[in-house]
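Hey team,

Filing this mostly as a record. A colleague (T.K.) asked me to run one chain through the structure pipeline before their review meeting, and I want the input and output archived in the tracker in case anyone asks later how it was produced. No errors, nothing strange. Just documentation.

Input sequence:
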Amino acid sequence: MTQSIDVINAKILIVDDQESNVQLLEQLLQAEGYSQVSATMRPQDVYALHQANAYDLILLDLQMPLMDGFQVMEALKTSTTDPYLPVIVLTAQPGHKLRALQAGAKDFVSKPFDLVEVKTRIRNMLEVRMLHKRLADFNKVLEQTVQERTAELRESEARYRSLTELAADWYWEQDEHGNFTKVCGPVVGLLGIQPATTDSTPTPLDDQGWDDADRQTLRAAIAAREPFLDFIVHRSTPNGKTESYRVSGEPMFSTRGRFTGYRGIGVETLSGT
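Output structure:
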């Protein structure tokens, strides 16, 4: 029902240098209920009229003085209103049909007019045109929605990072291979862990004095893609002290469900000699 209303309210321009043809098409369209029909016998005005009105359909005669239909279509192609060229050409020359379609026309009507054919081709053309406009509108809304959701996601991620940094001594991320890709917090320098970059090799936990049993338990949880909360890990420092940290983490997945790594936080709990 909505599409029928859209078609009836479509903006149509008739372009023909013969007044009798203009009147015939106007009467035909009005009888079919089309409410926004206009006409011109000056092909040189078509570009400006289309720029101002963004017609849904242009019925264009090919054989006109001063400027023929092919020249009009070339001018319309430079229109900034819409790259879609909603033109049905009107011609008494069978040999012009293929050339007109190659020039950008969407359809053609032969002269003398078969009124049933004219009505059918106009209706079909307008239905396609309305679907094209709806798709364009939908794409605009979709693009705007994606931009808004992306901005919301970035803002949410920034808040998350801020909160985790406030609530923990360090924040970390690992890739799917277990390499640290992001580490931040005041304890990073003490632990000696550095994220992987294009210019450096990531620092493995094995070389930092971490308890082997703790590491094995933690690795098992990571291998199972399980989250872990307040897991206690121990570390022996080069000067003989033992440090303990409470670590929490969760697996990360792409939008397609592929495992991409882990992220989490760590807090120093106690130190001993």
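Quick notes for T.K.: DSSP finds eight helices and ten strands in the chain. The helical segments are 2-8, 19-31, 46-53, 69-76, 96-102, 115-167, 188-191, 212-223.
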